[in-house]
Specification:
This protein is mainly beta. It is 14% helix and 44% strand. It has a single domain, classed as Jelly Rolls (Sandwich). The strands form three sheets. The chain has a three-stranded antiparallel sheet. The protein is elongated and about 40 Å long. It starts with a strand and ends with a strand.
């Protein structure tokens, strides 16, 4: 297993720029063809939800959520290609209070 880790300085937050998951081409894990190459998917929504707006994020790979949308066979060796920037800012602290069934108030 490997770990994806993004980290910014204090008073900075992560902004994910791109995230692709799969077996897009021969490379580090597939120097020659040992099965399907060319499968993969844009997983920006998954990675963005886990990382953007935070000072750091970390998760293990392979990732079952990303693999499910990759279009790759179950046993294919997959990898994540991701890019992010660190921007000045802090994650806002949001407070929610339930005011009625299914309704929330933000203050």
């Amino acid at each position: 297993m490997e770990v994806f880790e993004a980290q910014c300085l204090p008073n900075e937050v992560i902004l994910m720029e791109s995230a692709m998951y799969g077996r897009m081409r021969a490379g580090r894990c597939a120097v020659r063809e040992f099965g399907p190459i060319g499968c993969g998917s844009n997983v920006m929504a998954i990675v963005d939800g886990r990382c953007s707006g935070r000072r750091s994020c970390r998760f293990q790979l392979p990732d079952p959520d990303m693999h499910a949308v990759s279009g790759c066979p179950t046993k294919a060796m997959t990898h994540l290609e991701a890019a992010y920037s660190c921007l000045p800012g802090q994650r806002p602290c949001l407070n929610f209070r339930k005011i009625a069934a299914g309704q929330w108030w933000l203050w």
